[in-house]
C-alpha cells in the first residue's frame, strides 16, 4: 500500500527520471535574476568590486594625508619664517649699529681734533651682538721712498697702531677705525663713512685718529669719547722741523743733508699702507680718491697707495758739471715752458776761450728716445765790449736734435750765426768782461732755426749723439701734430723754419713729464772751454696736474680714549 499522498508524488509524466532543481531555479526561488532574465550591463570585474567595496576607507586616508601635508607646510613656514625673521632682525640691528658708529665717528672727530673735551654716544645693539675696544687692531704706516737722489733711500715718517671700536654679530663686523666706519660681512668690506684721509690738489692731509682703551659690552650701551691730548699737545708729524728722533720713524730724515720734515715734498714717492680686517674697503677708498699706484696684499690684509712727489721746475740753477744732470720733473704736456735761459762762462779769462767751443745738454730716454741742444763756436773777443767777439773767424752755431725712439727718423734743426756778437739776438756772445760769455734765451719767439740736416764739421764725437746725427738724414717733410698747441703744419727740409722757443716747448712736452738734461762737452781742445762752476741758468715751466702726485703733506697724530658703559 502506498502511503504517499497523491499530490506529493513525483511528476513523472514527462520523464522517467526524477526532477532536479537547477541553479536558475534556485535563483528564481531566492529572488535573484537569472542570466536569461538579465537586461543591464555585465557585472564589474572582481578587482574593481574589491576596491569599490573598500571605498568607504578613502575619505579617512585623504583626510590623514591632508593633515600630514598641512603639518609639514606649517613646520616649513615656521622654520623658514623664523630664519627670515632672524636674518631681518640681524640686518636691522647691523644697520642701527652703523648709524650709531657713524655718530661715534662724528663725535670722536670733535674730540680728536680739539673741538670738544668729551662726547657721549648711545650705541644700539642686541644681546646677540657685542661691542669691543681693541687698541692694537690695525696699523698705518707712511713712508717717503727715494727722498734722496741719486742714492735710493727710505724714511718711515709714521708707523703706529690704529685701534678700533668693533661690534660683532654673527659674521657681520661694524667698526670705527682710523676716523672712519667700516663693515665687513660675507667675505666683503664696505666703507660706511670715510676716514681722516683727505687728498685734494696734490695735498694729502691726515689727522690720524687712533683709538685707546679696552673692554667689551653688549646690548644698549653708552660710549664716552675723550681726547688723550688737546690743543698744542697734539703731536705734529709732518711738517716738523724739530729733530726729535735721531733714527727711526719721525723727524728728522735719517740720511739727508736737510733733515727736517718740510713742504713741498720733493723726490721719490710717498706710500701710505693700512693693515686692517677691513683692508679691502680701505683699498676701494684709496682707489676712488686718488690715481696713485694701489697695491692690495690679501695674505697680510694690507692696502697701500703710492703717490709721486711733484717737484716743481728747477727755477734758477747752477750749471751741473760735465756728466752731471739737471732734473726736470713734472713737465706739463702742452707747451708750458715759460723761461729757459743759459749763461755759459769761459773756463778762463782768456779771450780765446770759445775758439773751439762744443757744449751741449742732452737726454737719453727709454726705447731710444734722444734729445740734444748743442752750441759750437769759433772766434775770439777782440775788445772788452759786449760786441767784441769779432777777432778771427767768428761763428756760432746752435743745433737741436730729437729722435722719438730707435726706429723713428731724426728731427734736426740748426741756426748758424755769422755775427754772434749781435746783442739784439736771443742767442749771442758777450765780450764786455774781456772773455766771452754765451747768453741764450731758449724760449725766444724771434730766434728761428731751420729744419735741415745738422752740419757736423770735423769729428762727430764733439756732439753727444754725433754718430747718430751723421748716419741719418732728416725726412724731407716733418709734421708737428702731437699737442694742441702744435700748428699741424708740414715743415719742408731746407725751406722752413721755426722759433727756438716753440721747438723747446714742443720737445720738452714730448720728453716729459720727467727727464734730466745732462751736460756734455766736446773732446780735446773743446773739453774745458766752459766753466760749469761759473755758469748758470733759469728753467721755469708749468707742472702737470694729476691725482697721482703729491706736493704737500700734513700729518698729525690725534688719539682718543673710548670707554664703554653698560
Short description:
The protein has six helices and 33 strands. Residues 1-23 have low confidence and may be disordered.
Give an account of the 3D structure.
- The chain has six helices and 33 strands.
- It is of the alpha+beta class and 566 residues long.
- The termini are far apart.
- The chain has helices spanning 23-30, 46-53, 58-112, 279-289, 466-471, 500-511, and strands at 119-123, 130-134, 139-145, 154-161, 164-169, 172-177, 180-185, 188-193, 198-200, 203-212, 214-218, 221-227, 235-238, 269-275, 293-297, 302-309, 315-318, 325-328, 337-344, 357-364, 370-380, 391-403, 411-417, 427-430, 437-441, 448-451, 477-479, 490-492, 497-499, 515-521, 536-541, 549-550, 552-565.
- Helix content is 18%, strand content 36%.
- The model is unreliable at 1-23 (pLDDT under 50).
- The strands form six sheets. Strands 18-30-20-21-22-23-26-29 form an eight-stranded antiparallel β-sheet, covered by helices on one side. Strands 1, 9, 10, 12, 13 and 33 form a six-stranded mixed β-sheet that branches. The protein has a six-stranded antiparallel β-sheet with strand order 8-7-6-5-2-11, sandwiched between helices.
- The longest helix is centred in the N-terminal third of the chain and has 55 residues, at 58-112.
Amino acid at each position: 500500500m502506498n502511503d504517499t499522498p497523491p499530490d506529493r508524488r513525483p511528476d513523472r509524466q514527462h520523464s522517467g527520471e526524477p526532477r532536479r532543481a537547477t541553479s536558475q531555479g534556485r535563483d528564481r526561488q531566492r529572488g535573484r535574476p537569472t542570466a536569461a532574465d538579465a537586461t543591464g550591463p555585465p557585472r564589474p570585474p572582481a578587482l574593481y568590486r574589491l576596491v569599490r567595496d573598500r571605498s568607504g576607507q578613502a575619505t579617512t586616508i585623504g583626510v590623514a594625508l591632508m593633515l600630514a601635508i598641512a603639518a609639514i607646510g606649517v613646520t616649513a613656514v615656521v622654520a623658514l619664517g623664523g630664519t627670515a625673521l632672524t636674518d631681518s632682525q640681524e640686518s636691522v640691528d647691523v644697520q642701527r649699529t652703523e648709524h650709531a658708529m657713524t655718530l661715534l665717528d662724528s663725535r670722536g672727530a670733535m674730540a680728536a681734533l680739539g673741538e670738544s673735551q668729551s662726547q657721549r654716544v648711545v650705541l644700539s645693539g642686541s644681546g646677540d651682538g657685542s661691542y669691543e675696544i681693541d687698541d692694537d687692531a690695525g696699523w698705518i704706516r707712511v713712508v717717503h721712498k727715494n727722498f734722496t737722489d741719486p742714492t735710493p733711500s727710505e724714511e718711515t715718517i709714521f708707523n703706529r697702531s690704529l685701534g678700533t671700536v668693533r661690534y660683532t654679530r654673527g659674521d657681520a663686523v661694524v667698526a670705527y677705525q682710523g676716523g672712519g666706519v667700516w663693515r665687513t660681512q660675507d667675505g666683503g668690506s664696505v666703507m660706511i663713512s670715510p676716514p681722516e684721509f683727505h687728498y685734494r690738489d696734490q695735498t694729502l692731509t691726515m689727522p690720524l685718529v687712533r683709538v685707546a682703551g679696552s673692554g667689551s659690552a653688549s646690548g644698549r650701551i653708552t660710549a664716552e669719547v675723550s681726547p688723550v691730548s688737546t690743543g698744542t699737545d697734539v703731536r705734529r708729524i709732518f711738517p716738523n722741523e724739530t729733530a726729535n728722533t735721531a733714527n727711526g720713524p719721525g723727524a728728522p730724515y735719517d740720511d739727508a743733508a736737510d733733515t727736517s720734515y718740510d713742504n713741498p715734498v720733493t723726490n721719490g714717492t710717498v706710500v701710505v699702507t693700512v693693515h686692517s680686517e677691513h683692508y679691502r674697503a680701505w683699498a676701494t677708498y684709496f682707489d676712488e680718491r686718488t690715481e696713485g699706484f694701489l697695491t692690495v696684499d690679501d695674505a697680510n690684509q694690507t692696502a697701500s697707495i703710492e703717490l709721486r712727489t711733484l717737484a716743481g721746475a728747477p727755477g734758477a740753477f747752477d750749471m751741473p758739471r760735465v756728466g752731471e744732470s739737471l732734473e726736470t720733473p713734472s713737465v706739463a704736456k702742452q707747451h708750458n715752458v715759460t723761461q729757459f735761459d743759459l749763461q755759459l762762462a769761459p773756463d778762463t779769462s782768456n779771450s780765446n776761450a770759445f775758439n773751439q767751443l762744443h757744449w751741449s745738454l742732452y737726454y737719453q730716454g727709454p726705447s731710444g728716445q734722444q734729445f740734444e741742444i748743442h752750441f759750437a763756436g769759433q772766434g775770439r773777443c777782440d775788445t772788452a765790449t759786449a760786441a767784441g767777439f769779432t777777432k778771427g773767424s767768428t761763428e756760432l752755431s746752435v743745433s737741436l736734435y730729437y729722435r722719438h725712439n730707435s726706429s723713428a727718423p731724426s728731427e734736426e734743426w740748426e741756426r748758424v750765426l755769422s755775427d754772434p756778437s749781435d746783442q739784439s739776438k736771443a742767442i749771442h756772445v758777450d765780450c764786455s768782461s774781456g772773455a766771452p760769455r754765451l747768453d741764450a734765451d731758449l724760449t725766444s719767439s724771434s730766434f728761428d732755426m731751420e729744419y735741415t740736416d745738422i752740419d757736423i764739421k770735423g769729428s762727430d764725437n764733439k756732439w753727444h749723439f754725433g754718430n747718430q746725427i751723421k748716419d741719418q738724414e732728416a725726412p724731407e717733410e716733418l709734421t708737428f701734430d702731437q699737442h694742441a698747441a702744435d700748428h699741424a703744419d708740414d715743415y719742408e727740409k731746407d725751406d722752413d723754419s721755426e722759433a727756438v722757443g716753440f721747438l723747446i716747448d714742443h720737445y720738452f712736452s714730448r720728453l716729459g713729464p720727467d727727464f734730466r738734461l745732462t751736460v756734455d762737452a766736446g773732446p780735446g781742445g773743446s773739453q774745458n772751454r766752459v766753466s760749469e762752476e761759473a755758469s748758470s741758468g733759469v728753467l721755469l715751466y708749468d707742472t702737470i696736474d694729476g691725482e697721482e702726485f703729491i706736493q704737500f703733506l700734513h700729518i698729525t697724530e690725534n688719539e682718543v680714549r673710548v670707554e664703554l658703559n653698560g
